[in-house]
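Re: beginner question about structure tokens

> Can someone show what the tokenized structure looks like for a real chain? I only ever see the sequence side.

Sure, here's an example I had lying around. Input first:
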Amino acid sequence: MKVKLIDVDNRLSIKYDQVNGIHNWGDDNCYPQLISTLINSSVTAKQCVDINSKYIYGKGFNFTQNIVDKNSLIINKKGLNINQLLRICSREFSKINNLFLHINYNALYEVISVDLVNSETVRIGKIDSTGYNGKYVVYNNWDKKKTKKIDKNDFIVIDRFNPNPAIIEKQVEAAGGWNKYKGQILHITADFNELYSLSDLDCVLYDANSEFEASKFKNTGLRKGFFGMKFVHTKPFDDEDEAKEFEELIQASMGAENSTSVILVESKLTSDILKDEIYIQDIDSNIDDKKFQSTEESTARNIRKAFGVPSILIEDSDHSIFGQSGALLKEAKLTHWENKEEERNIVSDAFQLVFKNFHKPINPSNDWTITPIITQSNTL
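And the corresponding structure tokens:
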């Protein structure tokens, strides 16, 4: 894994790319890819995203709890129901603090499908003099991993969300008809003052990378260092056949997989004392866990703080969770549920906005409250 950690001042540099007609997301236009890579390589960051997404999703929307026929809740051609879309969006928002919802309409200007577009593939198009951006560009090779050049022929240009029938009609006409119309994208951010919101991981990018590098260093030491190796000192052999016979004996006694962990040394000094003629010496490990303990603890702590996750919800040692009372654990869960209220409101408001004109009555009550996973009377 190669991670490019850009200078802090330029990491989320948003510049308009005139050639491709987009606003770059980061100095190298790969900010979402960077965040995704670091989260997947950092055990603490991944746990934080898992926990925060759970506290946004809760138990799904309240109105779905008593619906027996879940097929009535399907909202796109993939067969996803509305709670499944909520779960996917909760994780995406926990990871990157941005959501791109793709909406398609029928000829009655009703919403017929809603799906999430991965942040790694979407970029904001040109902005006019009033600050309005009317287009989004969806492309699957911004990081140039598939091909070394950006191919504009593969761009999918999609209009900005606006449910006004007159606007939709103009977009359809510009596309060349309903069969060519790509629908609209609704972009939701945690910070509505920015084109792209920063991820919660942004301020601890180096900590997440350090956590990965520490793990990689220890793994390299185990695979390529002196860990578990032994020196076998013997008196000189009379000939090569005798030496080969002794090596085969060592290999047979230790097993083929461990035989490479033995270094055989013939000593010119001989003795009548057996222990001096054949002496086995362990080589101390070149991995000192104490060197990493302080670093690993500090990086994990910084990442938890960046995501706002209480340590009691993420640490699994006896000293943390199992050493704490049930009351403290429950209180931490309740507090974290309250802390994620803003994120839940942002996501649920987006669903309310998009689905209020859905082609079938998916939520007649128009109550988009999310069912809590923790209350005063129960625990998670």
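Each token stands for a local structural state, so reading them left to right follows the chain. The mean pLDDT is 83.
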